[in-house]
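ARCHIVE CARD
Drawer: 12
Card no.: 0347
Subject: one protein chain, sequence and derived structure
Cross-reference: see card 0346
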Amino acid sequence: MMPRNPLVIGNSHTAAVRIALRDGPGRWPGFDPDIFAMPGGTLFRLELRDRAFVPTDAETKKQMVFYNGVPELPLSGYDGFVVLGGISFKQIAELQATHRSGDFPSVRAGKACRLVSTGFVDAMMQRRIADSSALRVMRALHGLGQGPVVFMDTVFPSAEAHVGAKGFRTYVEMVARGDGAAFHARYIDLLDREIGDAAIRLPQPAETVVDGLFTAPEWMRGSIRLNPHDDVPHDADDYGHANASYGALQVDAVIRAFAAL
């Protein structure tokens, strides 16, 4: 069921989809969604009132107007939703930087850490997932009963990320220790349980993934910032945002998911 009036909503990771749709509309005839995007932290300061997302403070309202040109987001006219980003496996991975349970491959191999129970690790992850802006948005949209909700998680970091790259040390070290694949599988299991029937989760396009937990650099280089008024590239050392070519694959996946309903 292809929605007649879809909405894409998310954080800075919506920029790749926005640019792809803007620059290549002929690739997706009939698919012309509205896009609503806010910096990740500000999505927490929106609440659902009378079928509209409204800001809870003046600063959030100011940012809504800057990024989207509207002081609130009425939802009643939409019949399908796409949620992008709002959870980050990279940030979830920070939870196991020092504290790990006995079922981690690195712990079984005898590498030192602060041991905690399996249940404690799962509880930390579950809490972070449940409290994410993505889960809040998905549940709110599902509760409207207006149409299907599709979700795509934050892209894996670029394969060019390294230990010295700002914000990526924990992630790179996790993979190097041999914990990455098992921890990600654990994350996906908990994520799917939290999502339940609130949304259809789409995996990262397989052709973009290298070494299981990174994104091939050609899908990351040249990414554009969230700023809707100008195409401002990310710095060369931004290893966490995808470019418009990746965004086009996301649109392809979303359309396939809607068509299969």
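Annotation on reverse: Residues 15 and 151 are 15 Å apart (CA to CA). The chain has nine helices and twelve strands.
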